[in-house]
Structure formats: structure tokens, C-alpha cells
Amino acid sequence: MEKNSKIFVAGHRGLVGSAIYRNLKSKGYDNIITRSHSELDLKDQQAVVDFFQKEKPEYVFLAAAKVGGIMANSIYRAQFIYENLQIQNNVIHQSYLNGVKKLMFLGSSCIYPGNCPQPIKEEYLLTSELEHTNEPYALAKIAGLKMCEAYNFQYGTNYISVMPTNLYGPNDNYNLETSHVLPALIRKMFLGKCLENNNWSVIREDFDKNPVEGVNGKADEKAILEKINKYGIQYQGTDKKVSVGLWGTGKPLREFLHSDDMADACVYLMEKVEAKDIFEITGSAKRVIPISHINIGTGTDLTIGHLAEMVKEIVGFEGEIKWDSSKPDGTYQKLLDVSLLHKLGWKEHISMQEGISQIVKKQFEN
Predict the structure, then answer these.
(1) Is the four-CA dihedral 279, 283, 287, 293 of positive or negative sign?
(2) Closest alpha carbon to 324 in 310, 336, 337, 308
(3) Which of 70, 182, 320, 351 has the maximal Cβ count within 10 Å?
(4) What digits encode the pLDDT tens for the residues 4-27?
(5) pLDDT tens across 152-172, in order?
(6) Identified catalytic residue from 137, 151, 159, 168
(7) What whole-number distance in Å separates Cα of residue 271 and Cα of residue 1?
(8) Which residues of 310-323 are buried (b: 16+ CB within 10 A; e: fewer)?
């Protein structure tokens, strides 16, 4: 990419898209196209056709997607498969028709089977059944990856797919109904701390920023407390000590990567790596089409229990963590093998302690 190349960042307001936008800007790219959902609905085929024909982007980062945590994936299964298929089909195909030089498709580590050997290598894709709770989302992302692979094979396009581990960072989703594990942990611990300190002004500010089931900071104390309690943050005993309830046992292992690191990896790969480079590294006589996707992660993990204790300490919550073993844990371990990424020349920079501390300071304590 040249500094004046016309670059479309789809999903620029999301966790990864906003980080990619910041990273590009910091590196001197000054011809970046963005559209909010209200300006361009990527599910609308004709709207996407019109956009590409008018703007003619040279490079595309496809970071737009419908995403959510284990609860959202369990409830909104139809929406997760339909909306993601629509978005990626429209953007990838119009990129091809309009001569986009290079496209990056962002997927997820949930594309891999639920019982994968650990750490997970790119070659384990489609070797066994998917984890049930996020199957619709995973199927959509596999379809996007395979679409890029097929277009490269048939049309000679230069489309790269990247499969990130669990991400966190600025502009994450802190909605208690739909958020992933880490942002949910941070917000629950923060609200727990506010309850411990009887700091209702801050609780109201938090609900104004992120209403819970339509309840914002202007609601009465009883209504707010009802929603806080529903999501596991409760007073305990006559002395009203606060506890935070979390799903599962805390035993599953998870890997996390800061969104700024993810963005740096994405921009690095768009600058330095071609689809054919991946083919050359992963080609095998046993495969008709070599692996065309790259795992993005740290290659290290920790238990959800350890993560909860880390967040608790950083936030300053002093109450009890209560695990509800009647709720699902999800896959026991999802650790990515990132040796291909390292061969291509990139490695992470931000530690978990540093990254979580930044989030708490910038998004909750200001």
C-alpha cells in the first residue's frame, strides 16, 4: 500500500475496525474511506454495489461483522449467520468486480472445531465438529474465508484472511447482554466496585453510556439495581457485601490480544505479505489449495478464573466472585498456534496487565 492509496475500512467504529483506522492514520495513510451503518448498510446488496462503483477503493479491510459473546451467540443464532453472510458476500464480491488490489477478511478463532488439538494450527480447519454455542457465527466466518480462498484460486485475487484470538481494547462492546467475556468482566467488576462505594453518580454515568435492556442512568435506583442484579452483581448478607456472579467454573483457558496489536498485525500483513506468500509457506502436495488464512494471537493463554482475579485487582473490586457451574463454560481451551504469523515477521507488543489497565483507566475511570 502507498500512503495515498484509497483504503476502505469496513466497520471502522467497531473494536478492530477503529484500531485499524488509528493504526493506518499513525503510519501516514491519509486517504481512508469510512461509512457508518446509517450511511451504508453492508447487508444491502445494491447499496454496496453503488458504493464500490462510486468510490473505487484500492484496498479493503473487512472488519464489519455482527459479533457477541456466548449469551448473544446462543440467543441470536439466525441473525449471526444471516447478517455476517450478507455483509461478507457483498463486500468480497464487489471488491472483485471493482478491481480492489488487496482485501483482508477478518474472521475469528471460533472457526476451528470445538475439540481441536492445542495449540490450534491453521490446518485444523474443518477437521471436526464446531462448538455448538457459536456454530452459526463460525459457519459464516468459514464461508468468508473459503470465499476469499476460492476467489484467489479462480480469479487470481490477492485476498488474505486473518483469524484473531479473543480481542479486547478501546471501543469494545460493554453491553451486558451481548458482550464477550473480558469486557463483561471489566464492566461487572467496575459496577461491583461502585456498589461497594455506594457511588451512584458513577453508576448512573455508566448506564447512560451503556444502557442495560433499555434502562439508562435516568431511571430510578430500584430499576437500575434490578438490572445490575440480573447480570450477577448483587448485595450479599445483612452487611450488603457485593458479589459478582460469572458463568461457568472459571477453569477454561483463553488467549487474549489487544485490538491495537491486532490492528498492527493487520496493517503489517497488508503492507508486507501477499496471498501467494502464504501459499508458498503452507503449500502441500496433499492439499489442492494451500492454507490461505493466518492465525493472529499471542500463543499463550490463562484460565478465566485467573483473568477474573486479574481484572478484580486492576479495577479495585474487593467483593466475592461467584461461579455458576450450571451455566456453560464453552470450549475448554482455544489457544492459537501463531508460528505462521511469526514466520511472516510479526509478534505482539502489549501485555494483558498493561492492556486491561489502559482500558479501565480510559473507559471507566475518566
Answers:
(1) negative
(2) 308
(3) 182
(4) 999 999 999 999 999 999 999 999
(5) 999 999 999 999 999 999 888
(6) 137
(7) 6
(8) bbbebbebebebeb
Contacts for 309 with CB less than 8 Å, ≥ 6 apart: 321
Amino acid residing at 145: L
Pairing of strands 256-258, 166-168: parallel
Note whether 12 and 24 are within 8 A (CB).
no
Q: What is the pLDDT of residues 255-300, one digit of tens each?
A: 999 999 999 999 999 999 999 888 777 655 455 556 789 999 999 9
Q: Extract long-range pairs of 191-199: CB within 8 Å, 24+ residues apart.
A: 191/228, 191/233, 192/233, 192/242, 192/243, 192/244, 192/317, 192/319, 193/315, 193/316, 193/317, 193/318, 195/228, 195/233, 195/235, 195/242, 196/241, 196/242, 196/317, 196/318, 196/319
Active-site residue, 137 included: yes
Query: What pTM was estimated for this model as a whole?
Result: 0.89
Other Cβ atoms within 10 Å of 271 Cβ, number: 11
Alpha-helical runs (H) found in 10-129: 15-26, 45-55, 70-75, 77-97
C-alpha 141/C-alpha 160 separation (Å) is: 13
The Cβ of residue 43 has, within 10 Å, a number of other Cβ atoms equal to 18
